TrEMBL record:
Pfam families xrefs: zf-CHY (PF05495)
Zinc in keyword set: yes
InterPro entries to which the protein is assigned, alphabetical: Znf_CHY (IPR008913), Znf_CHY_sf (IPR037274)
Bias kind Acidic residues: ranges: 386-395
Keywords: Metal-binding, Zinc, Zinc-finger
Residue intervals of the CHY-type domain: 581-648
Region of interest called Disordered, as start-end residue ranges on this chain: 1-39, 367-413
Top-level taxonomic group: Eukaryota
Name under which the protein is recorded: CHY-type domain-containing protein
Record bears the keyword Zinc-finger: yes
Biased amino acid composition, Polar residues: 9-20
Length: 690
């Protein structure tokens, strides 16, 4: 080997030589320009775009003013946050290019026009910036690709829609003149002024007002104590309107518009009980008809409440408070609905009689409706006709018979919404009707897709529960329908926060096909044949459910509406698993004792802290309203100290270091033998004897 002898004064280590002075201007060479670009700049730059986008489409502009080049620009940013697969560009290159600038037109139909205008303005701004620098069309397209995220994040530009209206004022003027001529020919009809009767305001004495205020305060305290902790309870700021839960006793007898009523607003006047109570029913369905029916029930309750208050002064009257009024409404709301329907029919009949009376037909006589055809009181037993006639007619009340025989009441008209449960290939032998009285389901959580069991669902009763894995709350309700030879739909399921997955063993109530007697509940499941004997006529019947289908009834679910809020953002996939800790338990180099990640509201991205956000993003950070626990990796609303799921602290506390309650120890019995502190100062504290 040849020995290496370094020169004296030099170092043996190898170092990289650095340029200490800038090069001379004479050595700087400009970027070479192809001769073809110098000869024909326009053709050269168009060929560059053609090679870059092979699937282009080239056409000539009308009048030969230039060339139109259509191509699809795919965003090159791998972290592009918008759900935009490609940008459909139509570039108009004039014949006098580069003296006249090129114009860009965005042809995407899946984004609003306002965002397309933002992109076109961004192109014009980019052309203006690089006007003196000699940028090519390809470099301008690449620059647009880099700025695409910022342009789509800007506020949508305002657009104006021009509509052409036909001038029909001359036709309107001619029609008005004809109407005026007809009115001039007819004699004017003088309408007498309507005189309204004067109704004086009701006045009260000071003693009555003081007594009413005292009673109101007492009953309001009782109402808050009884219902203050219920789910739908709410009290207005002025203490007049109270939102209370309402559970009608006979919900099945209510019309379909009022079956979904779960709460009611009780209006307690300041001078109650001198002034009548009023109620407002919530969750009324059925549109205008449902609102009119609800208004009739509300007015009738107000009158009934006033009558009950007036009866308190008599000997037979009993004192009823606000809680008793609400219970009275829950027990008798179906009777109030019947009375409202009777009043509506009587009003329609009176209006028809009045219309017939106005017509000059003296030979016609109007026969009033028999009173026994309407709804009577449940407590009345008197009748004006023979009881034998009723037996000859053979009529029967299905509701009472079904309740006495143990069966559930028959469901009425059901609103078609939610998830329909169908039995397409059901087999019924000796059965005329079949209904599901108690339903059990398997539902899938919308958040973590975990299957959960929901049992004991009954008609028009919602059941709330939570996912066994991610603890997300969900609600399931069931509305019955009858299954027979012409209908295989068993009802509708209203699921919130979950999706129906499968049918579990449920309770079915079949009705005998010979005697129409409902049987007791029978537990069955898909694929099982259930056979039994009628307890009334002893006839054998059987049914089988080979398969079950769940069909979503959502109005307009397949119609594609135009976007209104810009491109949809992609959901960020972090690859986390619930129950497992985050990397480094969520801590970062800036905060070692912070065990969580934050989802910042400015960009909806996740970072361990604000400094990590500022280092990765170019915009100013905003307060984070959600966080991910570093111990269990579950996303939740922002909490100051602890996780809402696992309960562990997400911030480091004082006194939790290595020695202060941590992994370290000063107990010499637990120290390892190699620790130098184990035998330090052994016997060192003893004083030496002289």
């Amino acid at each position: 080997m040849i020995p290496h002898h370094p020169k004296p004064g030099t170092s043996t280590t190898h170092s990289t030589q650095a340029v200490t002075s800038p090069p001379r201007p004479s050595r700087v060479v400009p970027k070479p320009i192809p001769p073809q670009q110098t000869l024909d700049t326009r053709t050269y730059q168009i060929n560059q775009l053609k090679r870059r986008y092979p699937s282009h489409k080239e056409t000539s502009l009308p009048g030969g003013t230039g060339t139109s080049l259509s191509f699809n620009l795919v965003p090159s940013d791998p972290d592009f946050p918008f759900d935009l697969p490609q940008l459909e560009c139509d570039l108009h290159i004039p014949s006098k290019y580069p003296k006249s600038p090129a114009k860009l037109h965005v042809k995407n139909s899946d984004i609003p026009r306002g965002f397309a205008i933002n992109i076109e303005k961004g192109w014009d701004k980019l052309v203006e910036e690089r006007k003196g620098g000699g940028g090519t069309l390809l470099s301008l397209v690449n620059g647009l690709d880099k700025r695409l995220e910022g342009l789509l994040s800007e506020e949508k530009a305002e657009t104006v829609k021009l509509t052409i209206f036909k001038d029909t004022r001359h036709l309107d003027r001619q029609r008005v003149e004809e109407e005026e001529e007809e009115e001039s020919k007819t004699e004017p009809v003088v309408v007498p002024p309507v005189r309204r009767a004067y109704i004086p305001l009701e006045t009260f004495t000071q003693a009555q007002i003081a007594e009413a205020k005292a009673r109101r305060a007492q009953e309001v305290r009782q109402l808050e104590a009884r219902m203050g902790r219920l789910q739908h309870y709410h009290r207005s700021s002025d203490g007049i309107i109270y939102t209370l839960p309402l559970d009608p006793k006979k919900r099945a007898e209510l019309p379909g518009e009022l079956k979904g009523v779960m709460s009611v607003q009780l209006v307690v006047p300041l001078l109650y009980p001198l002034q009548n109570l009023r109620v407002l029913l919530n969750d009324v369905e059925g549109g205008k008809e449902g609102e009119e029916l609800a208004e009739g029930v509300e007015e009738l309750f107000s009158r009934k409440a006033g009558e009950l208050v007036k009866k308190e002064g008599s000997e037979q009257g009993e004192k009823m408070g606000l809680v008793a009024m609400v219970n009275w409404l829950a027990q008798r709301i179906h009777l109030l609905v019947r009375e409202v329907e009777v009043e509506v029919r009587e009003a329609e009949h009176a209006a028809s009689v009045e219309r017939v009376g106005q017509v000059d037909r003296g030979h016609l006589h109007v026969i009033p409706r028999p009173p026994e055809w309407g709804f009577g009181d449940d407590g009345t037993e008197s009748s004006n006709y023979d009881s034998e006639d009723e037996d000859d007619e053979g009529g029967a009340e299905l509701g009472k018979d079904s309740e006495e025989m143990g069966g559930s009441p028959l469901p009425t008209r059901t609103i078609e919404k939610g998830t329909a449960m169908l039995f397409p290939s059901i087999e019924l032998h000796g059965i005329e009707l079949l209904q599901v009285s108690v339903l059990s389901l398997n539902v899938k959580c919308d958040r973590c897709k975990t299957l959960n069991e929901v049992t004991g669902l009954k008609n028009n009763l919602d059941k709330a529960s939570s996912c066994k894995k991610c603890a997300t709350a969900f609600t399931v309700g069931y509305r019955q329908e009858l299954v027979h030879m012409n209908s295989t739909r068993a009802g509708f399921i209203d699921a919130t926060g979950c999706t129906v997955a499968d049918l579990l063993p449920s309770t079915f109530v079949p009705t005998c096909g010979k005697c129409s007697h409902p049987s007791l509940g029978l537990v069955s499941v898909r694929g099982e044949t259930t056979t039994n004997i009628c307890r009334e006529c002893h006839a054998r019947f059987a049914f089988k459910i080979p398969d079950v289908k769940f069909l979503d009834y959502a109005p307009g679910m397949h119609t594609r509406l135009p976007p209104t809020s810009g491109p949809r953002r992609k959901t960020e996939k972090l690859g986390l698993h619930a129950g497992e800790p985050l990397p480094e338990k969520g801590s970062c180099q800036h905060y070692k004792k912070s065990y969580r990640w934050f989802r910042f509201s400015c960009c909806s991205k996740v970072y361990p802290c604000d400094k990590c956000h500022d280092a990765a993003e170019e915009h100013i950070n905003e307060w984070a309203n959600r966080m991910i626990c570093g111990w269990c990796s579950r996303e939740q609303n922002y909490s100051v100290e602890s996780c809402a799921f696992c309960g562990r602290s997400v911030i480091g506390k004082r006194g939790s270091g290595y020695w202060e309650g941590g992994k370290g120890t000063r107990d010499k019995r637990l120290m390892r033998r190699g620790d130098k502190r184990k035998y330090r100062r052994v016997g060192g504290g003893e004083t030496r004897k002289d």
